[in-house]
Task: structure prediction
Amino acid sequence: MDSQKRARILRTMLVEVPFALVFVGWFLYRALMQEMDVSEIFSFIVALGVLFVAESFIHESGHVICGLLYGVPPSRIQVGYGPSIHLWQDGHVPVSLGLLPCGGYVEFRYLPISRRQRIVMYAGGVAASSVAAIVAWNFIPHHLDLLRTETVMAFALFIATNLFGTAPKDKYSDGDAIRGLLAYR
Ligand SMILES: [Zn+2]
Result:
């Protein structure tokens, strides 16, 4: 096994797995100790689906906004993976939604920009999700405590996966790209 693959597995074990376990553990604690009823469990699952789609949209928007700040327009926006439906065409930019609504990618027109700008564009997705998580924590009312914590945990899991996770085959995660860009001088 090459060292890169080993590093990825290590990152998954140290970051994504603990995050996911805390999330699942917290849910089980709430469900069992505080006796959630069936409708609450159902709403939790529905909310999770909505959160996955919302996170993916917010994340990809962060990349697009950072790109536009540097005058680099996107050439293709994909939210989610897997078999995709074409949502709309924004100017010359096709926007599509994959059936697996987690993650996605933005392709930009190739323009000569600095390495720092490229890093900011890759980091823009995670930055947008972090802002959204902070907003959610402050604006979702306290009596909706379950939804509030669920939202922040789901976003934290996505952020960790984006920074430290392993992208699907032939794709780079934001973290992979940022580490790659930081590696050369
Ligand atoms: Zn991204």
Notes: The helical segments are 3-33, 38-69, 115-139, 145-164, 174-183.
